[in-house]
Design a protein that fits this description.
The complex is a heterodimer. Chain A is mainly α. Chain A is built from 8 helices and no strands. Chain B has one domain. Chain B contains 8 helices and no strands. The longest helix of chain B is centred in the N-terminal third of the chain and has 56 residues. Classes of the chains: A mainly alpha, B mainly alpha.
Chain lengths: 174, 195
Amino acid sequence: METVSRLIVPLVMCLVGSALLLSKKDMFSVFTDGARDGMNTAVRLLPTLVALLAAISMFNASGASAALATWLAPMAEKIGIPGELIPLVLVRPLSGGASTALIADIFEKYGADSFVGRCASVIAGSSDTILYVISVYFGAVGIKKTRGTFPISFIVMVFSVFFAVFLCRFFFGM
Amino acid sequence: MIGKICGFICVISFIFGICTGNAEQMGAAVVDGASSAVSLTVSLVGIMALWGGIMRVAAETGVVEKMAKVLSPLLRFLFPDAYRKHNGWGEIAASISANFFGIGNAGTPLAVKAMEKLQENNGKSAVASDDMVMFTVLGSASLSIFPTTLVALRQSAGSKAPFEVIVPIWICSFFTALIAVLLVKCSILFKRQKS
């Protein structure tokens, strides 16, 4: 598993390289177009990240985050979720930028390879910003009554959080 | 929304900091936080640009069309109305495949196009159709094969194995999508029985 995951990136680069060599289309400009898009996504995140990371680091320094964690942790642990993940779980359905900021914060505090860091990764990777998706999709076509969409998406999200933590226990132990 | 969250955090922190005597550390922490956002972005830009390019090449080589073909029996089950009316079919396939490859921002316009087609089938009603609920619930359950931002974040945090979370993410996404489909189908059956 370890070697496989280390070979993924070189292998992908090799596949892209062969697409560059074999395709009749101008694959290099396709690549640079995509790269420009990826870059723009990262840059567009910056203003949001500045505001949120400044606020989060103020939150940490004020001692409020430690107090919140000690207050919420027992409840969270009781339902089987590490207490450190609660802020991320609360914010994940609301805002992509804010969850990126929180994940960065968790990685810095506990490390990306810690149990909490891995859980945060799986939770973030297997869920989306429900609120954004629903409002953009339905807003675009003028739907007012969304029927069960919101409650269903919410239940699905809650399920994915529990399942993500369960999978991390299974894959990484602890 | 994001503004409200941010404002809430700031006000709470200020009050809490004053009350607990942590007020002095807060000033320095705010400046630190803002500059750490910049260094985070700098390390993200390169990685995300690289993956953005790779994913675009994958999409261009026809992987997305092949995906749509493979998906078609499944889509027929998920979106029976669009299938019957032969409208919105291709758009749904394109959008779901795009989500699958994590094309990100390029995915939103595709999804909106699919929603427009579904709205045509829906007769311009203000109430969402079955197909639309299914499409939106699936859209809000992440189905990405490669979570670009997340891997970039892990790499920039110095993870020794940034990819080790990919397999659990796949499994989790798969079952999440399964639950999503079941719940939507159940809600449709429930609605039919009531009427």
